[in-house]
Specification:
The protein has helices at about 45-65, 70-85, 85-100, 100-120, 160-175, 185-200, 215-225, 235-250, 270-285, 305-315, 335-350, 380-385, 400-410, 425-430; strands at about 15, 20, 25-30, 35-45, 130, 140-145, 150-155, 175-180, 205-210, 225-235, 250-255, 260-265, 295-300, 355, 370-375, 390-395, 410-415, 415-420, 435-440, 455, 460, 475-480. With about 475 residues, the protein is of the alpha/beta class. The strands form 6 sheets. The chain has a 7-stranded mixed beta sheet with strand order 14-15-16-13-12-18-19, sandwiched between helices. The protein starts with 14 loop residues before the first strand and ends with a strand. It binds NADP nicotinamide-adenine-dinucleotide phosphate. NADP nicotinamide-adenine-dinucleotide phosphate binds next to helix 7 and helix 8.
């Protein structure tokens, strides 16, 4: 079934500053990667707009922080209800500007709404402490306060979920926000901001600046003394630039960066289950996920069986515009992104990998077919960098310790996947993997109620779960003679 390829009625296209939508002096085109046609032109914010957004957030902060947790929570709960009632609009926007399949966008929109529900509940559970000092001379009271204005930067691959995963905990904590979405996918973020407005978020609590100049606008925002924290999701190189900027004013930051997830199929694993998990871990979002399985390490006794069944499952996927709900693999976000993946395949071939294009992709639009790459050597390009597309490199191993060593042989540490002979093997191996998250016998672990984040160069801090709200809180200790 093909759904309407027009924007949902009332989708904002301006920038949002202090409760006012404005079209600004410059415009930025948003392109549908499935058709390569322009979907909309949105306001293109400049440095002065970024500073105005910070000013609006700073002005709104005292009143928002002074609301009770219950009042803030109820606004977030209303946002959850509204978003759930209008989920199809959100899905349509994600599909149109990002290109992903309808079912992937539906999964994302539901996950995105969950952050409003989860943090509406967390807003009233910010615990402090009260205890005697060990020396008995005083009482230690610990309290948590909203840190202030939070600057939030999101990537294009999950335009709704990355926005709500930051907005919801920041607002629950009592912070006001300036959100900068990715320039390829601003429409979903604008729609989310409009949901929050309609849910009752006061003017200035949520400000959104879409921009074609992320560097200068972000630098000016981070240099502004009214900004208290940065929450960034994106690539590790950009994360490093931003960390150096936050260091100038010693502001806190949380960083959700790149991944290079290993997927281990150990001796004795159930191959059917492993293929089912691999399809989700590799193909959710067309492989454009920081959590995407990037490299497969398969025991020699299973590699033939696993490779052929995985190939078969990939070949059965319907490829085409996500707006047709029957398609399971949509377009990459842009022609550049598609060409980058094609370039990686050429490199893999030069390095001795056997390239296996399992099907054909439509010629128009930013489509690319799934590929399995057989006979890959650990250490080759495909095992070192984030592919971000539907490419599955397979490395064979004989010894579990060797598989663990190869899995950990990367500067990244976001997530790993393990299929072993039983749960005990999965847990034992999982605990030796240097990743912030480990999926055992499953292809996805993301959950608003769980701590999401990476070790090593995959990031700093955690989003979601009980941890997420603390990225936006400052701890204060009161030492008192009781
Ligand atoms: P990206 O190039 O790092 O961009 C991410 C965001 O940063 C975008 O909003 C981008 O704006 C902005 N940006 C770019 N240069 C900047 C600068 N100099 N200063 C400030 N902001 C700047 O990443 P991407 O290609 O959009 O997203 C893919 C990456 O995100 C992958 O590495 C993926 O693993 C990672 N990711 C991580 C997680 C996680 O939770 N760990 C989740 C999703 C994605 P423009 O759009 O205008 O360039």
């Amino acid at each position: 079934m093909t759904t309407a390829s027009t924007l949902p009625t009332g989708t904002p296209t301006g920038m949002l500053i202090g409760g006012e939508w404005s079209s600004g002096s410059e415009q930025l085109d948003v392109v549908d990667p499935a058709t390569l046609s322009v979907l909309a032109s949105v306001a293109d914010a400049g440095v002065a707009d970024g500073r105005d957004a910070v000013g609006a957030a700073a002005d709104a902060f005292p009143a928002w922080a002074a609301l009770s947790g219950r009042e803030r929570g109820e606004i977030l709960r209303s946002a959850y209800e509204l978003m759930t009632a209008e989920l199809e609009d959100c899905v349509r926007l994600i599909v149109l500007e990002n290109g992903k399949a309808w079912s992937d966008a539906m999964g994302e929109a539901r996950y995105a709404a969950e952050f409003f529900r989860w943090f509406s509940e967390e807003a009233v559970r910010i615990e402090g402490g009260f205890r005697e000092a060990p020396g008995g001379d005083k009482t230690i009271i610990t309290d948590h306060r909203p840190v202030g204005v939070a600057y939030l930067i999101t990537p294009w691959n999950f335009p709704a979920a990355m926005a709500t995963r930051k907005l919801a905990p920041a607002m629950a904590a009592g912070c006001t926000t300036v959100l900068k979405p990715a320039e390829q996918t601003p429409l979903t973020a604008l729609w989310v901001a409009h949901v929050l407005e309609r849910a009752g978020a006061p003017a200035g609590v949520v400000n959104v600046v879409n921009t074609s100049q992320p560097g200068p606008v972000s630098e000016a925002i981070l240099a502004d003394p009214r900004v208290a924290t940065l929450s960034f999701t994106g690539s590790t190189p950009v994360g490093k630039i931003l960390l150096s900027q936050t260091a100038q004013r010693v502001v806190t930051s949380s960083m959700e960066l790149g991944g290079n997830a290993p997927f281990l199929v150990l001796e004795g694993a159930d191959v059917d289950a492993a293929v089912e998990g691999a399809m989700v871990a590799k193909m959710r979002n067309g492989g454009a996920a920081c959590t995407a399985a990037n490299r497969f390490y398969v025991h020699a006794s299973l590699v033939e069986d696993f490779s052929s069944r995985f190939r078969q499952a990939l070949a059965a996927m319907k490829i085409g515009p996500g707006i047709d709900t029957g398609n399971e693999l949509g377009a990459m976000v842009s022609v550049d992104e598609r060409d980058k993946i094609a370039g990686l395949l050429a490199t893999a071939e030069d390095e001795g990998g056997r390239i296996d294009a399992v099907s054909d992709a439509p010629g128009d639009g930013a489509f690319i077919a799934p590929h399995v790459v057989h006979g890959v050597q650990h250490g080759s390009t495909l095992t070192r960098i984030e592919v971000f597309g539907p490419v599955a490199p397979i490395v064979t191993f004989e010894d579990t310790d060797d598989a663990i060593r190869m899995a950990n042989d990367t500067e990244f540490g976001l997530i790993s996947y393990v299929y072993g002979a039983d749960k005990g093997v999965g847990i034992t191996v999982g605990r030796q993997l240097q990743t912030g998250m480990v999926a055992i016998d499953r292809g996805v672990v993301s959950d608003a109620a769980a701590p999401f984040g990476g070790m090593k160069e995959s990031g700093l801090g955690r989003e979601g779960g009980f941890h997420g709200i603390h990225e936006f809180l400052e701890t204060q200790y009161l030492g008192i003679t009781w």
